[in-house]
Amino acid sequence: PAAVVRTLEQQPKNIGEKIEKDMELQRGEWFDTHPTDIERIENAMQEKAAGIFQVELPARSLLKGFSEMSGDSTYSYYRRQLMFDVAKSQLIPEEEFTVAADEQRSHDSALDVFFSGAFSVYAPIENNGSSAPNVQQQDAIVQAWKKHSDLMRSLAGQAKLAYRRFGECEQKLNNIVLARTYVHAGFNIDPSEFGLADARPETIPQAEDQARARMEQASVVLNQLVSAGMQRMRLAVCLTPAPAAEPTRATWDSMRPLFEVAARVSGVMLEVMTLHSETQALGALLTNQSGHPPNRQLSVAIAQVTQACVRRIRTIQDRLRGVVYPFEHSADQKTLNDYAFAESLQTDSPSSVQHAGDIIGERLFSLQFRLVARLAATAQAAEAAAGLH
Fold first, then answer.
1. What does the angle CA 234 – CA 238 – CA 240 come to, to the nearest 5 degrees?
2. pTM for the whole thing?
């Protein structure tokens, strides 16, 4: 709760005004379990009570031990609502959270600037970060840095178009996978709702292949941009005037694990994208199962999609096995698999498999952005220190 209050205080004034306006428009429905916020306020106002006291202080002032209460409610929310397997010792104070959130926003901005708003989380990243360029050969590093920087600049316009096209193709592919799953389960669908001209079982695979081909075409320039960007980052952290060569070496040593982990995560991101499509389809089938009488064809389809998700999850876990989660709050040497999904996978429960797939996809997707954003921010700082822009 304290972090929510702090976050709201940092937002532009119009955001708070919009929230209040939206609250005023809320009205309860017949089967709501509780009145809306505005209805509660209106009911209190109708009492026209004098009140016990009046004070111009935040509501938190009425609560004893607000910080402790915030920690307890946050822990309960993570454990019971989000079902995250976290220990209470992992909670961080509000002040540290705010600093970390500000830092992450700064890194996200650096990522956007560095890749001209066209960073693709699905682009492959080569694991060539184990050895740094020779920091004594500054002229060679600068020349190589300029080469990759110029290439990124020349690709920027194409990459923005490709980024938008890739996103459109990804959404279309998700719709096609969902349509295919529905048809396989025996449902009659309206093709237009899924962006299809035809929903016959024999034509859907053709549409799926076409969507994948378009995604691959859009990926070409995005992959080139990311490849050049990662090389530029690798060179940038070694850019330094000669007298400060050794401190720069320390910077490289601190960044190397991020390069290596980003490369490992990039190796599973296409599997993550497919897992996302499959878990969406599984969720749709489970929703339909709950609203219909028993249906053998539907049950078979759910079992098949569940097993496909399980295989995908196992593949992702195998590829990330032994990789240490790289950020500071993992002092216990937590692995990426622990971070992505520490719980035991209940393979015989479709809803549990869907939940696991959703969490794994969300966490690895955000982790890759965070890794590359940290590298981009560090690279930009090194470039600025070396007088290169």
1. 145
2. 0.76
Of 125, 364, 371, 111, nearest to 226 by C-alpha is 125
Q: What is the DSSP string of 166-212?
A: HHHHHHHHHHHHHHHHHHHTT----GGGGT-S---TTTHHHHHHHHH
**What 3-state class would DSSP assign to 324?**
strand
Alpha-carbon torsion (300, 302, 304, 310), positive or negative: negative
- Tell me the residue length of the chain: 389
Residue with tokens 């089967």: 31
pLDDT digits 0-9 by tens, 25-73: 887 887 788 888 888 888 888 888 887 888 888 887 888 888 888 888 8
For the chain, where are the alpha helices, taking DSSP H only? 2-9, 13-25, 37-47, 66-76, 94-114, 138-184, 204-236, 245-266, 269-290, 296-320, 336-340, 350-385
The CA angle 169-175-180, to the nearest 5 degrees, is: 125
CB atoms within 10 A of CB 74: 20
Query: Half-sphere exposure of residue 253, counting CA atoms within 13 Å on the CB side?
Result: 6
CB atoms within 10 A of CB 6: 14
Nearest alpha-carbon partner for 194 in 174, 213, 166, 211:
174
Q: What residues are paired with 324 via a beta bridge?
A: 335
User: What is the token pair recorded at 145?
Assistant: 């840095």
